[in-house]
Amino acid sequence: MYRGIIQHKTYLTPYLKNEIGTRSLSNPLNGGRIYRILPAGAKPVTVKLSDNPADWIQALGHPNGAIRDIAQQLVVDAQRTDIVPQLRALLQQQGSIGQVHALWALEGLHALASADVLPLLDTTNAALCRQALAVLPSVMNPAFAKQVKDKIAAAAVAKETAPSVAYILPFFAKYDPSGAKAILTSIWQRYPNDKVIADAVISNVADKEQQLLTAITTWNTDTNLVVRRRLEKVLVDISNHRKARLDEALIKEYPRGNLLFKTICQTCHGADGDGIQSLAPPLNHSELVTGKKERLIAIVLYGLTGPVQVNGKLYKSPKSTAICRALPATMSSPMAISPSCSALSATPGAIKPKRLRKAMSRPFARSTRAVRSRLPWRS
Ligand code: HEC
Predict the structure, then answer these.
(1) Residue 227 lies in a domain
(2) Which atom of ligand 1 lies nearest, measured to the CA of 305?
């Protein structure tokens, strides 16, 4: 940045202040905001593009990529379909950097034909082949899919073009699902340890990640294959995302329950309900949670004294008295009902159904008060 000063005072650290001072970065005042960076000794020349499409065609082969991009943009924005023949001619100029821009300019004019693309897939120029693969979805149709299949399969062999093949395979799969699957398999079996290729492959299997994992593990039991590890991570991400979405929906539906859980239960049972070692058993998949509703309500309202069996594991809470005594001081929340499951002496079995019914029929706050008045440290 030309002044070395970011407008916000907060970012002016002592280090930056010093840099600004010693390098006089506060001096240049009207040089724009960002310095233009040039190679040492370079003499920049201003390029002006006229309104003449002939100039644009010329500029599509300019050594400066930014100029080429602008020329391409001008062609597409102006929708000058009258220059399609010149663009085709440029596309056929082997070895010209303009080939790629002619390709995408034709695509942007909706004038690209499958015949334009086909020869480019034979090229030994991997960069051009990648562009030709990338543009395939624009020209794909049932007849062309048959024609281009072998070329796609051939491009899937080279490491430089395999990822591009994997990325466009879903468009080919629309017309030839089994052919696409065979090519995809050939890619991950040939390059099971390449990160980029692995991600390109995985991008093909939306909602079928598990099937791909099964195919990989059946093919090779090595747990360290890059493609396997990345796929497993994707599966974990998916499951976390689903869980988060479910949680969000639940929080919306039960805001008070959420608050209650966060302020009381989470301390012992963990934020995710998986329990905390030597503090409290998990709630997830616990028979006591998924089982009879009345019993669960009784635990929340009146507490529970262990030991309890959860998910086939016995939980004893030897420190339960300590937990219990520690609680009142921290119990400032008016939502508090049953601060510790082990803190209360009543076991669910001891709850009289009539009493439970009565407590439950009261509005939330009142029943809370009623229960709290029965807490041992209150009486
Ligand atoms: C101070 C720690 C503590 C707090 C806070 C706490 N529990 Fe518990 N909870 C336990 C312990 C310990 C057990 C196991 C019984 C025992 O050992 O006394 C348990 C058992 C349970 C059980 C039955 C066993 C299981 O895991 O399914 C349920 C259900 C339960 N708690 C729900 C809750 C809910 C709901 C809250 C919040 C309102 C809560 N607990 C707050 C410590 C706590």
Answers:
(1) no
(2) 18
| Domain boundary residue, one of 82, 112, 142 | 112
| Chain-centre distance for alpha carbon 277 | 31
Same domain, 9 and 82: no
Test site for ligand 1: of 260, 262, 269, most ligand atoms within 8 A of the Cβ: 269
Tokens of 298: 């009784």
Centre of ligand 1 to C-alpha 57, Å, is 74
How far is ligand 1, taken at its centre, from the CA of residue 280, in Å?
A: 6
pTM: 0.60
Distance 244 CA to ligand 1 centre (A): 23
Percent of the chain topping pLDDT 90: 55
Angle at 221 between CA 216 and CA 223, to 5 degrees: 90
* Alpha-carbon dihedral sign for residues 187, 189, 191, 192: positive
Nearest CA to ligand 1 atom 20: 341
On whether both 344 and 365 belong to a single domain, the answer is yes
pLDDT digits (tens, 9 = 90+) for 7-27: 667 777 888 888 888 888 777
Q: Which tens digits make up the pLDDT trace of 136-173?
A: 999 999 999 999 999 999 999 999 999 999 999 999 99
Query: Both 29 and 60 in a single domain?
Result: no
| Residue 299 belongs to domain spanning | 281-372
CA dist 329 and 337 (Å) reads 15
Tell how far the Cα of 339 is from the centroid of ligand 1, in angstroms. Answer: 8
